[in-house]
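FIELD: query
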Amino acid sequence: MWLISWASYLAISLIGPTLRYSISWEEPPSPPDATYEKPVIYSFWHRAVFPSAWLWRKTGIAVMVSRSFDGEYIARTIEKLGFVAVRGSSSRGGSKALLGLKSQLEQGNLVAFTIDGPRGPKYVAKPGPVLLSRASALPMAAFYVALSDAWVLNTWDALMIPKPFSKALVRFSAKMRVPAEAANAEDAKLDAQMAEFHRQLQAALERVTRFAEEHVARVGSAEFPIIKG
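FIELD: result
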């Protein structure tokens, strides 16, 4: 565990500085030159952990990390990079983890879900962000980081390890907010409402993934200027 976590940290620290990032938004951020907005509940696919971890290192972002073996070394790695690991998943410790993330939001911090983790299926969003948005009255959004050149591992999530000097395009979705009245709806109506917000989140993730993959080769152009990573 010690060796894996340090090897992961060193790989991110060595390759990360060579990456060329650009950020694209479905709606204008505040401030205009932001690399993220807060407090917002973000979701992204598990396969984009590597480029995400480097770009937002030392920001104190709270990330839900599973209690599995994989989750343990991921937690140790991201904590070395300045993230806050909140332990739990959809199958183990989920309620406690959601409370921990809610507390982070109340402190004005950003939180993020590797939304198809810890074991997949790949590209299928779990409902945690919807539940947290309802409980916190704060918006949720999705993002994806596409890479122009990467090693793709033969893992359940097809984890991407960027090759040095790759281009990386981050695409953020518009924000979505679960309205307060959803918490007071009758059971059947609440189930339908929550299912609809879950569907919107899934659609947003698919949309930003498609956009980033289609446009990553244009990073460095006038439309997708390189930011300081």
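FIELD: remark
The longest helix spans residues 187-215.
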